[in-house]
Specification:
The complex is a heterodimer of chains A (235) and B (182).
Chain A lengths: L3 E6 L2 E6 L4 H8 L22 E4 L2 E4 L10 E3 L3 H17 L14 H8 L16 E2 L5 E4 L8 H9 L5 E4 L6 E4 L25 E3 L20 H4 L4
Parallel strand pairs in A: 1-5
Antiparallel strand pairs in A: 1-2, 3-4, 3-5, 6-7, 7-10, 8-9
Chain B lengths: L5 E6 L5 H7 L4 H8 L1 E2 L14 E7 L2 E3 H13 E7 L1 H5 L11 H11 L19 E6 L9 E3 L6 H12 L15
Parallel strand pairs in B: 1-2, 1-3, 3-5, 5-7
Antiparallel strand pairs in B: 4-6
Classes of the chains: A alpha+beta (235), B alpha/beta (182).
Chain lengths: 235, 182
């Protein structure tokens, strides 16, 4: 699998390896493609569509689309960023994202992508849906108000922890994360050290007694935009 | 002498924290006074608009009919209307009641809450009191909002930079560090 594949992103020549997805090759080359549901250690889900790029003019999710010789990828364009802003806006208005008291604020990937894309406020009317909070587990609590249905916890628990604690239930706007247990999170074998407790991009899966440890100003995305680490790899 | 553009401000369903943040521009307030006159605002206690305003700053969302009335008045009198802070933008803490029926909220506050003393069991209903809306509405769901400055409260610098840019006709380019939702 070491066959080299050459293609371009926004006119920049990238050399990737056969079998890589666009996002993997871009990350390695130091080009940041905005994303939310993608996590490098998990199987790509392709559900949030934030990483949508144009491959030879056709929209594709960069986290699932394999690279191919000679393809032309467009990533950093006004139109794609507008599309991404629309998706992020919808994620904000479909949930209850109260950043001002969320322990994930400053380290939240949804918020960070919104900051990076320069969103000052969502433009749509808010849903204010009724969502559940499950705080029955002694060490972890689940706040579905903030869930963006990225599916990272589902994959991490199933594929890495080998537990299958989380699963999607319902369809469309009623779709949500549920726990695979008699009644609630306390009835599962989820542990704080599990991968599933670590991969949530937003403030849905939280470890108790760890909140607000980092002061404002020193949090992950306070001074540098998300993706800066990837861009610093650029030669 | 050229007349200065006017700025009006209001606090709807907010906590006045955003107004505090405006005052947090410190000595730059002297420069601001050179640039503008304040019209209707809790800062100078002018109750009614005295004329057309260049900029209206709105703190807080709409929780009752008076909030809606004031917001509509601001839209009528201001060229540019800015939602300042998360309450104006998305309802914020007051909007936490939005998925609880209003009746339940009032009963909890005036009848059933653990610290309530209300022997006559009256939920305030004086005609002088503005009626509560069924939920708290972000400002952009009630009138057209031209700009939004997020934060709880927004940093004094983002308010300052936005005001100066708009008053001097420069494009509003906010640095990354100033865009915060908390």
């Amino acid at each position: 699998m070491s066959e080299q594949i050459t293609f371009t992103i926004d006119g920049i020549e990238i050399k990737g390896k056969a079998g890589q997805t666009i996002i993997e090759a871009a990350d390695e080359a130091g080009i940041y493609i905005p994303r939310l549901c993608y996590h490098p250690e998990l199987a790509p889900h392709g559900s949030c569509r934030v990483c949508t790029v144009l491959v030879n003019g056709k929209p594709q999710s960069a986290c699932t689309q394999p690279i191919a010789e000679g393809i032309t990828v467009e990533n950093n364009t006004k139109e794609l960023d507008e599309h991404r802003r629309n998706l992020i806006d919808m994620l904000f208005i479909e949930g209850n994202h109260f950043c001002m008291f969320c322990e994930k604020s400053g380290n939240c990937e949804l918020q960070a992508v919104a900051y990076r894309l320069g969103i000052l406020a969502p433009k749509y009317p808010y849903f204010f849906p009724k969502k559940d909070v499950d705080s029955t587990h002694p060490d972890i609590f689940l706040d579905l108000n903030r869930c963006i249905l990225c599916g990272r916890c589902v994959s991490a628990s199933r594929d890495i922890d080998g537990k299958g604690v989380f699963e999607f239930v319902g369809r469309s706007i009623e779709k949500k994360i549920a726990v695979n247990a008699e009644a609630s999170l306390k009835d599962t074998n989820l542990k704080q050290a599990d991968k599933a407790a670590d991969v949530c991009p937003v403030g849905t899966i939280n470890k108790k007694r760890t909140a607000f440890a980092i002061p404002i100003g020193k949090r992950l995305y306070d001074s540098k935009p998300i993706g800066s680490d990837i861009e610093s790899r650029r030669k | 002498m050229m007349t200065k553009p006017k700025v009006a401000t209001a606090s709807l369903a907010g906590c006045f924290g955003c107004h505090m943040s405006l005052l947090d521009i410190d000595e730059r307030i002297l420069k601001l006074i050179e640039l503008v006159d304040f019209d209707k605002s809790p800062i100078d206690d002018i109750k009614e608009f005295t004329g057309r305003c260049a900029i209206g700053l709105i703190e807080g969302g709409c929780a009752n009919e008076d909030n809606v009335h004031v917001l509509q008045e601001f839209r009528k009198h201001c060229d540019i209307l800015i939602a300042v802070g998360d309450c104006a933008i998305m309802g914020d803490i007051p909007a936490m009641r939005n998925n609880i029926p209003l009746k339940e909220c009032l009963e909890e506050a005036y009848l059933n809450g653990p610290t309530v003393y209300n022997p006559e069991k009256i939920i305030p209903n004086d005609k002088e009191l503005p009626l509560c809306l069924n939920r708290v509405y972000p400002c952009h769901e009630v009138v057209k909002i031209d700009y939004s400055l997020p934060g709880c409260p927004p940093n004094a610098d983002i308010i300052w930079q936005a005001l100066v840019a708009l008053l001097t006709g420069k494009p509003l380019e906010l640095p990354y560090e100033l865009i915060k939702y908390d």
